[in-house]
Specification:
Chain lengths: 442, 291
């Protein structure tokens, strides 16, 4: 009896040890790295300026583990996206060094590089541990989000492209084949078909609020229709070219079939309207798909299919947008800040990041069978990203990453909104916009 | 004697110093920044002095002219509506037959306790043409206005302001009404004056100083209206609700960073508010002497 017990307990102990070894081997490299960091920087403190965003929620969930491993204290300063830009700039002007890590929208990268708010990270990246694997980050994000003038200023922490979600149940009910939507004309026809088909049903939901929201909506059609803001690689304004004008006219046409109130819709209202079952289609950021699939908030969860953006006369192109983590130039703890970024955005921790609700940025996760089965829209994200990469490879920025972009975005946002609200026609509005943009470069 | 002359200044000194530090210095600095060309985020040494150029620029700017017009429209409509409703509520409350007066006044205070930017957010949901509560109730009457549209957006903002600040006007007027002497009213009743005559010739003239205070406070607030517009419509659609403060914010911060121009607009706004309030205070002073 005693012997049996002894053997049993021995087996149990062995099993426990074995499982320990297995789990240890996985995080072995991480542990060694963390021990080194702890020795050098344990006890130091960093502050992060961040926007309210799912990726930040995920990072916050991962923070206690990071603090335990490295002994670095992390403080968060989280605020609304619009304030974040102003706050970072004012802190920068005052040279307070209050922030070590800053969250940077791709639209700001040119401005932040020019004003030296963020520092280049190339030298840091060269010294990054092997398990970090920078090259695993989706190419469209790597090249399209974090780079300015061939220097890396930010590590993509949340990337997104755009795609279309459609109500599978409605498409089946009315015998409309979603695969028949190949071009932008097809999309217009489909929106028209479903608009008003049922009581309170609209064709397609997008964003139309003045400012960068309407620019985001309209730009989905800009590049596929052959339009652009600048002639490739120059500062020659082409936003009033016939193709660009046509793309804005198309967008306004499409918005006839959008829910009422579209002129005040940000991504929130655009998505909520779809989640409430009031639109047959939705065309917005891939990062918002989790909202649609959230059964507690969305009555259409599980009834939705996804497709990549359609093709226009000038081929296909898709949006790249997203956030970077960058290091503030005024930081007194730049090395510590880098360790934080390394931990949060590495390949080794990527699965944990996505599990905690983060926004996928890595190829390894997008192709992981385990994740694909749980997030049905991953294949369409990959497809959209390939389209996005077409632009990136051509050297065209979906939203030009130049220091003047925030101002240009304001100008375009106002003029596009004037067209959407029928105050001006597309030609006059874009001529005005082109005039104002040219004035910025004088 | 000398000592007693100095004494008040010693007691005033702390508040004067604070006032100087947090109000007067920034205002002087505002005048200075309105005369330079500087972009937020660039080193402070990169600024260039341009004199009055910023003022010339804004007066030529179409958006500025539009914003001035809209601010005037907004102020006139919201303050006058608040006054009319406020007066009706106040005269209702001052009736002797009204019961539960304390409870009614308590309820009136609720909208005022809501932070304006939060009120804007709440109303943004209410006004949503598709799932908002307002259109839900209106659909029983077979109407469904698009509150966000170019033509209605301004009225949406005014409605929120009226909802939030009518109680304030009502309470001030109610306090004024309760403090009126009763003898003129009794005399009027003996003389057989009608209700309308009493209101026109007795109540309103007696109440004038109080009315002016209410309008002055609300008018100044309405001129510098920012939070509700910011969270409700963001100044849009297009430029439909872009009031002056919104324009200041959009020019100075919000991705544009043209601090010089924004300061110039802010100075114009400041001067307008000071002029209007001086005018009111002057009228108020004259009336007081008459009474």
């Amino acid at each position: 009896m005693k012997k049996e017990r002894l053997i049993l307990s021995l087996i149990l102990i062995l099993l426990m040890l074995f499982s320990c070894v297995v789990s240890f081997a996985k995080t072995d490299e991480l542990q060694i790295w963390a021990d080194q960091v702890k020795k050098k920087m344990g006890g130091s403190k960093i502050t992060i300026a961040a926007a309210t965003h799912p990726s930040i929620e995920a990072f916050k969930k991962m923070t206690p583990q990071f603090e335990k491993l490295t002994g670095i204290k992390v403080a968060w300063d989280t605020m609304e996206e619009i304030y974040l830009h102003d706050k970072i700039l004012t802190e920068h002007v005052a040279r307070t060094g209050r922030y070590d890590v800053i969250m940077m929208d791709v639209c700001w990268i040119g401005e932040f590089a020019k004003k030296q708010v963020a520092i280049p990270l190339d030298t840091y990246l060269q010294k990054a541990p092997k398990w970090y694997n920078y090259d695993d980050i989706v190419p469209a994000y790597r090249k399209g989000l974090g780079v300015f003038n061939n220097k890396i200023y930010g590590i993509p922490s949340a990337g997104e492209s755009a795609f279309i979600a459609y109500r599978r149940d409605l498409f089946e009910k009315y015998g409309y084949n979603p695969n028949s939507i190949k071009t932008y004309d097809d999309l217009l026809a489909a929106a028209k078909f479903f608009n008003g088909k049922e009581d309170g049903l609209f064709g397609i939901s997008m964003r139309g609020r003045r400012g960068h929201h309407i620019v985001y909506g309209w730009f989905q059609t800009l590049y596929p229709m052959g339009g652009s803001v600048f002639a490739s690689g120059t500062n020659n304004v082409t936003i009033n070219s016939p193709e660009s004008i046509k793309s804005l006219e198309y967008f306004v046409d499409l918005m006839q079939y959008a829910p009422r109130g579209i002129e005040n819709f940000s991504h929130e209202e655009a998505t909520t309207t779809f989640m409430q079952g009031q639109a047959a289609m939705w065309f917005d950021a891939t990062a918002l798909a989790p909202w649609i699939e959230d059964e507690t908030k969305s009555i259409v969860a599980g009834k939705v299919g996804y497709m990549a953006p359609p093709t226009g006369p000038s081929g296909s192109a898709a949006a790249v947008a997203g956030w970077n983590l960058a290091i503030s130039s005024a930081s007194k703890n730049k090395d510590v800040a880098w360790k934080f970024i390394t931990y949060m955005t590495s390949q080794l921790t990527a699965a944990e990041y996505v599990e905690s609700g983060g926004v996928v940025t890595r190829t390894s996760i997008l192709n992981d069978k385990n994740f694909v089965s749980r997030y049905p829209y991953y294949p369409q994200i990959v497809e959209s990203l390939e389209m996005a990469n077409v632009l990136v490879d051509k050297g065209i920025d979906w939203r030009p990453r130049i220091p003047e972009w925030p101002r240009i975005g304001e100008i375009l946002g106002l003029n596009a909104s004037l067209v959407l609200t029928k105050q001006l026609n597309a030609k006059d509005a874009l001529n005005n916009a082109a005039r104002d943009i040219k004035a910025l470069f004088k | 004697m000398r000592k007693s002359n100095k004494a008040p200044f010693i007691w005033l000194a702390p508040s004067l110093i604070v006032l100087f530090l947090i109000t007067i210095i920034p205002t002087l600095f505002l005048f200075y920044t309105s005369s330079v060309n500087w972009e937020l985020g660039l080193p402070w040494s990169d600024r260039t002095f341009v004199g009055l150029q910023n003022y010339l620029d804004i007066f030529r700017d179409f958006l500025f002219q539009q914003a001035v017009k809209r601010t005037i429209v907004y102020t006139v409509f919201s303050v006058s509506t608040e006054f009319v409703f406020g007066y009706i509520i106040a005269s209702f409350l001052s009736r002797k037959s009204v019961r539960w007066k304390g409870l009614l006044i308590g309820t009136l205070i609720i909208p005022m306790t809501v932070t304006p930017s939060i009120a804007g957010l709440i109303w943004r949901l209410y006004f949503n043409p598709n799932y908002g509560i307002i259109n839900y109730f209106l659909h029983f009457f077979k109407i469904a206005p698009d509150w966000y549209s170019y033509s209605l957006a301004m009225s949406s903002v005014i409605i929120v302001d009226v909802w939030q600040w009518t109680p304030f006007v009502a309470l001030i007027l109610f306090a004024g009404l309760s403090a009126l002497p009763s003898t003129p009213f009794e005399a009027a009743l003996v003389d057989g004056a009608s209700k309308l005559q009493i209101m026109r010739y007795i109540t309103l003239p007696l109440l004038k100083p109080i009315i002016l205070i209410a309008i002055l406070l609300r008018g100044m607030d309405a001129l510098k209206m920012f939070d509700v517009v910011f969270s409700l419509t963001g100044g849009g659609p297009a430029d439909a609700t872009e009031l002056l403060s919104m324009l200041v914010y959009r020019t100075g911060f919000y991705q544009t960073g043209m601090i010089g121009l924004a300061s110039a607009i802010a100075v114009v706004l400041l001067v307008v508010i000071i002029l209007i309030s001086q005018l009111f205070i002057k009228i108020l002073g004259e009336k007081r002497e008459e009474v």
